[in-house]
Amino acid sequence: MLNRGFGFRSALSLAFADISPIVALYAIFALGLFAAGPRFFWAFPLVLAGQMLVALVFGELASRWPYAGSVYQWARHARGTAWGWTAAWAYIWGLTLTLSTMAYAAAGFLLEALDVVEPSRLQLMAVSMGIIGLGTAANMVGRQVLKVMIIASIMCEIVGSVVLGIVLLAFHRVNPVSTLFDGLPHADGGTLSTMLVATAFVGWAFLGFESAGSIAEEVEEPERNVPKAIVLGLLLVGTIVMFSAVAVILAIPDLPAVLTARTGDPVSATLTTQLGASIAKPLLIMFVIGFVSAFLAVQSAVSRAVYGMARDGALPGAKALSRLAGPERMPIRAIGLTAVVSALFLLLAGSDLYNVLVNFSVLGPYIAFAVPVFAAALLRLSGRWEPGPFSLGRWGGFVTYAAAVWLALEIVNVLWPRTQPGQPWYINWSMVISLVALGIVGVAVYASRRDRISEPVGERS
């Protein structure tokens, strides 16, 4: 049994740190800018609106079934074991790849802060592995370390996102507001196609709000506190991300040259040019702290998903992965497994496949989100939905169906093969290939464990 060591503020802080405005913006800023130009900004409010629908549905589901594992438990109780297992399988792989992405991005910022201008693959891999090891060790120690890192993350977010945005807008704005409607100069493809690409990348920015549901069994009064943490966490992060995005876009010096070159890191270059190296370096360190804290929050969420599945006998090695250890009764082995797998992905992918890592980090969670949302929609259509303490009332059906449509459209958008100049065919089809491969493996694993999975219970304590 997991100990209850989190209150509402801790759950909200975890959701905030998991999404992390710093991570949400700076990990995909260059990808979005180079895909659609400054007008990629408008993908942020679009994705935020869609994800807010999902967050509201998750709030209802978390209030009805406040169990460790979030999407796994919600889908399983709403529609059955096969649905829950499918959601968890996609969730685990997607979030584990997110750990790889965060570690790699944090390594780039850290090396840049250390004046390593063009780091080698070996340097990036070594620092990334160090970040995975540090984050994993911190998560294994216990909840207190996680709480401290989350507080440090929030402080960095305030300075690195809010204060920085105010300074850039007030003193270093060099581009007019109309710039936000500009595309790439001499770009192939129309506005719709480039914005769809940008929307796929921006989809990565607003993931992680469900993490408050992953630790539901460790939260006091979870049926009330978890839904509030899920919704408010996403709303806070979304507001800060959009504000920071505007500030950075309008502060980029010689924007036409940056858009023509479509290389390098426009965020770091802008900060160095506008604020000077002496100010830019501490900001880069803050970015690293933000990424590491988000790494801790994401790993906390995915390890609880692994633990929740293993506790029900749904994974190979379930007995070992469901064991809790230490005075705080932590799922140590589940945490360690996520570290090993994320490190292996990073070694296999490397810098050449960073955009593939980002895309699958979007695809996996979106599929995982879609399963419980579709399950909730079917439950409503059948007339068997029973709300918990957190309820949308008469708006619940509309919001649930709209969230299902949004997720379906975004999954197709992310999955759609797009030709990338200079890349081999298997990179352009990497999303489809990855989905099919993990789907085949998933079917085999589920078939081998199906008869050993325990039935969902009405209450857990």
Automatic annotation (TrEMBL):
Q: Which UniProt keywords apply?
A: Membrane, Transmembrane, Transmembrane helix, Transport
> Where exactly are the transmembrane stretches of this chain?
12-34, 40-61, 82-110, 122-141, 148-171, 191-209, 230-252, 283-302, 332-351, 363-383, 395-415, 427-447
Gene Ontology CC terms: membrane
Question: What molecular functions are annotated in GO for this chain?
Answer: transmembrane transporter activity
Membrane topology (UniProt): Multi-pass membrane protein
Q: Where in the cell is it found?
A: Membrane
Q: Which Pfam families match?
A: AA_permease_2
Q: Which InterPro entries match?
A: AA/rel_permease1 (IPR002293)
Question: Which protein, by its recorded name, is this?
Answer: Amino acid transporter
Q: Which organism is it from?
A: Nocardioides kongjuensis
Q: What is the lineage of its organism?
A: Bacteria, Bacillati, Actinomycetota, Actinomycetes, Propionibacteriales
